[in-house]
Design brief:
alpha/beta, Aminopeptidase, Glucose Oxidase, domain 1, 12-stranded mixed beta sheet, 16 strands, TFR-like_dimer_dom_sf, carboxypeptidase activity
Length: 917
């Protein structure tokens, strides 16, 4: 090991002799005034293992914590004072001092006070700067070492024949007379032309100049800029990016994932509460501020032991076959009992009826069964296809007259016909059951009993019969292992199904629909229903130093249907790692310009409850101050990166992808993105971004790496699956952490928010064209007996947005030119305008809200984004925009549709005007 040349690591020297102590410039004086560093830091410095933003710097982020050992003399040694040169007098009493020597010492002290002796320069090497911190930077800013003496020159008057005395003393008195205070004696001004008058004038001018400089500095916002640079910009932004990107640790991600998947944790259960406490503890431990727990009281249901059954009944009404329902135990030895197979927010009931197979359970599928009497029947449908929403399958069955609904996973969609099944592969095995919620999120999101307001205990609530958010027939999920028996018993009943209806369940000779004469099936679903079940959100933040009220929010839900390795805890593990890295930066002195808030949502699996209740509770504040929302949920299930969200993120996202390299493909994620002609996708309506984007208009982004398949919401979606199949080595968790960290830095710490407003304008024009094509397929453009339907006003609104964005975007270039011309300084007025410019970008989407909401679904207020009332086989529901217009076109009421188009157009035009006025 190379010898250590830094004397701070050497042992403390022995007490010096008097001659050594007072010798000018002695090595002991220089070394004893330095501050020793922590032993662990010394070891790290010697080993060369410390993480630094600047390779040449041993400690790029040097701690600024006060060191009590700074300047401390060894073993209690005190250096001699200036009063005497007698070493023995250091410990003698005043009475031992000679009176003449004492008067002489007093005179020396007075002269030193008047001369204002300042040894700051002598000791400047021994004191850290009071303004800054040493920061390793790629392009280093100067380390400000202010040596200004923050006091004005003192004006002294001469007394007693011109001898300069203590300004606070008294004039000498004649023998037998009382001394007269100096302020009581008549003043004598210096004579014209004297050096004293010149000194007085010079000092007065100096004082005026200092006051003028102070006024100019405050008026130009120098100190605001300086504070920003000291908190954030003193850290070179590029070096911070490099540090964050290189600090993402796959081992820590793995440990977090392992812990959060170690036992089942349905919303509101004991396991969920325990993980909430762990999350709260980690938020604090990793350095977040204002960590709080937020409780809501919501409607949840839980399965009862023995309360569920799917049976085929004989002629005597007794069961001749019963479904197993539950999966094989896959983690009991390490994780405890897995959750029962059930549907969240399902209807309680015990119903019987003939079995009818209805393909994927869309409304079109049920329409094809119109020749079959389905009243009181039990529907058997499969997952996936255009109707991916479980609730809408059950609702469609209810509307078609069915008494109950069973939803199974077919191997043609996500089983062995697709590839290797879990636990060795990504697809659902024969006994795999995909749990889920059947609450009508497209109609009522969040707690179904408090639509539109936060579900706090003291607030009013609907009854179960009043809410529009629940289906009215019972349902259960089923593995294809059990569905196979049901499908086999349908042979010869009803009609043979068309080719597109045939699934992949093996040993089914012929696929039949069934009818009123089919075997009778019993569907039993008895459950515990809790009207006011507590759930717990956890929040923590890093407060910004310039626009602290404005915030970038990152969220991930904590509850899970089973163990949740992918959904949600791949996202949980990544979020916690980024919190750790940013918290460490804060401990080193870094601060963002805007606040960064992290949220752990609860109740997402049921109906996006936790995030929605938060948004409804704080809707006004979020409309005013939420700048962006980034969502992590089913974050990593493979190696292909996807992003869905508002177009404002497009340019920034591509810049970030250019920085992140995929080691498996030896290229950047941007190159992989371009090779498959990827683009920012539509958000859809299945995660916690819904309330932010669609209720309060916060521009939202959802990030994830996808794979071929996933045993979603089954017990096979566990830690072992992620370890060996989902993401061995946690490579893509690490890459997602890098992407997330870089996005947060850019959104929270760039002086101007990096929103791509031109991309929004371009996409809006394209969406209007897509809507026009779609309406033509629905025949809305045909005149008939009504006034012709037209999208002219909507096209004009899109053009207004394009013009406004073009004009709005010019200001950023003007700002940049002004700052460059001022050598990097920003005047106060320009700084305020920049903050207003950022606010206008952030509130642009809030201006696209219809305060009345979509008719019959008034929680959803965004006129462009939002879930569709029903899925349509002719389009991807995640790529469908203008939900209120589509709803009215689908209703067939052309007059109402036209009124809706014009209303949406007016809202968009107003948003365009707000952007530039």
């Amino acid at each position: 090991m190379a010898p250590n040349e830094d004397q701070r690591y050497d042992p403390v020297p022995p007490i010096p002799t008097y001659e050594e102590a007072v010798a000018g410039g002695s090595a002991w004086h220089r070394e004893s005034a330095r501050s020793p560093i922590d032993n662990s830091q010394a070891a790290e410095a010697e080993a060369g293992e410390g993480q630094s933003l600047l390779p040449n710097s041993r400690h790029a982020f040097e701690s600024t914590a006060p060191n009590p050992a700074r300047g401390r003399r060894p073993r209690g040694y005190r250096p001699p004072t200036v009063e005497t040169d007698d070493e023995s007098s250091l410990f003698s009493s005043d009475s031992e001092s000679d009176s003449g020597d004492e008067r002489e010492a007093d005179q020396v002290r007075r002269e030193m006070q008047e001369l204002e002796i300042d040894d700051s320069d002598m000791n400047s090497q021994n004191r850290g700067s009071s303004w800054g911190k040493r920061i390793g930077l790629s392009l280093s800013l100067p380390q400000w070492r202010w040596r200004w003496r923050w006091r004005l020159p003192r004006l002294r008057r001469r007394a007693d024949g011109g001898n300069t005395g203590d300004t606070r003393g008294t004039a000498p008195a004649a023998e037998g007379q009382t001394a007269e205070p100096w302020f009581a004696r008549p003043s004598s001004l210096p004579k014209f032309g004297s050096s004293a008058l010149f000194l007085l004038v010079a000092r007065t001018l100096a004082a005026l100049i200092v006051l003028g400089l102070l006024y100019a500095l405050f008026a130009s916002d120098l100190f605001t800029n300086m504070a920003r640079r000291m908190g954030s910009q003193m850290f070179d932004p590029e070096s911070v990016r490099i540090h964050v990107q290189s600090s993402v640790d796959p081992r820590r991600i793995r440990e977090h994932l392992k812990h959060f998947t170690s036992y089942a944790h349905l919303a509101g259960t004991e396991g969920d509460y325990a993980l909430m406490e762990d999350t709260e503890m980690l938020f604090r431990e990793y350095g977040l501020e204002d960590v709080t727990r937020d409780v809501y009281h919501v409607y949840l249901n839980y399965p009862k032991t023995g309360g569920r059954a799917v049976e085929i009944l004989g002629e005597d009404g007794k069961a001749v076959w019963s479904a197993k329902l539950e999966e094989e135990e896959v983690g009991a030895k390490t994780t405890g009992h897995q959750t029962y197979a059930f549907h969240g927010h399902s209807k309680s009931g015990d119903v019987m009826g003939p079995l009818v197979y209805a393909n994927y359970g869309s409304r079109d599928d049920f329409d094809r069964l119109k020749d079959i009497d389905t009243r009181g029947a039990i529907a058997l449908v499969r997952h996936h296809d255009s109707q991916g929403d479980l609730a809408m399958k059950v609702k469609a069955a209810e509307m078609a007259g069915f008494a109950g609904c069973i939803i199974y996973s077919d191997p043609a969609d996500d089983g062995f016909l697709k590839g290797t099944t879990a636990p060795k592969g990504p697809f659902v095995p024969a006994d795999g059951v995909r749990r889920g919620t059947v609450s009508l999120m497209r109609w009522v999101v969040g707690d179904v009993l408090t639509p539109g307001w936060g579900s706090k205990e003291h607030l009013p609530r609907m009854t179960l019969d009043q809410t529009k958010g629940l289906v009215k027939i019972p349902s259960l999920p089923l593995a294809w292992r059990d569905a196979q028996v049901l499908l086999q018993h349908l042979k010869g009943f009803g009609q043979q199904v068309p080719e597109g209806w045939k699934g992949g369940v093996p040993d089914i000779d012929e696929w039949w629909t069934g009818n009123g004469s089919s075997p009778i099936v019993r569907l039993k679903n008895e459950q515990d229903e809790v009207l006011k079940q507590p759930i717990w959100n956890v929040y923590g933040r890093i407060n910004g130093i310039e626009q602290g009220e404005k915030k970038v929010i990152i969220g991930n839900h904590r509850d899970s249907w089973a163990f949740g390795a992918a959904d949600p805890h791949s996202g949980t593990a990544v979020m916690l790692e980024i919190i750790r890295i940013l918290g460490d930066l804060v401990a080193r002195g870094w601060r963002p310009l805007r606040t960064i808030e992290f949220a752990s949502w609860d109740g997402e699996a049921y109906n996006l409850i936790g995030s929605t209740e938060y948004v409804e509770q704080y809707d006004d504040a979020l409309r005013a101050d939420a700048l962006a929302y980034i969502n992590l949920d089913r974050a990593v299930t493979g190696d292909t990166f996807h992003a869905a969200g508002s177009p404002v993120f497009r340019k920034l996202l591509l810049q970030v992808l250019n920085r992140v390299s995929d080691p498996h493909f030896n290229t950047t994620l941007r190159e992989r993105w371009d090779r498959r002609n990827a683009d920012l996708e539509g958000l859809g309506a299945d995660s916690d971004y819904v309330a932010f984007q669609d209720i309060v208009g916060t521009s939202s982004l959802d990030l994830h790496f996808d794979g071929e398949g996933l045993p979603l919401h089954s017990s096979y979606e566990n830690f072992e699956w992620m370890e060996h199949v989902g993401d061995p080595g946690y490579v893509y968790h690490t890459l997602l952490g890098q992407i997330l960290g870089l996005l947060i830095l850019e959104l929270a710490d760039r002086p101007i928010m990096p929103f791509d407003m031109p991309a929004y304008a371009d996409k809006l024009s394209r969406w209007v064209k897509d809507l026009e094509s779609w309406t033509q397929t629905k025949g809305a453009d045909k005149a008939g007996g009504e006034k012709p339907f037209s999208l002219t006003s909507l096209k004009e609104a899109a053009e207004e947005i394009t013009k406004s964005v073009r004009e709005f975007s010019k200001w950023e270039q003007s700002w940049e030119n002004s700052v460059l011309a001022a050598s990097g300084w920003e005047p106060a007025g320009l700084g305020r305008r920049r903050c207003e410019y950022n606010a206008r970008m952030a509130t642009f989407e809030s201006d696209l809200l219809d305060s009345a909401g979509i008719p019959n679904r008034t929680q959803f207020k965004h006129v462009i984004f939002g879930p569709q009332l029903w899925s349509d086989n002719n389009y991807n529901e995640n790529e469908a925009y203008f939900p209120s217009i589509r709803d009215t076109v689908m209703s067939g009421n052309r007059t109402l549709a036209q009124l809706t188009v014009d209303k949406v157009a007016n809202i968009i035009k107003q948003a365009a005007a707000n952007l530039v006025n």
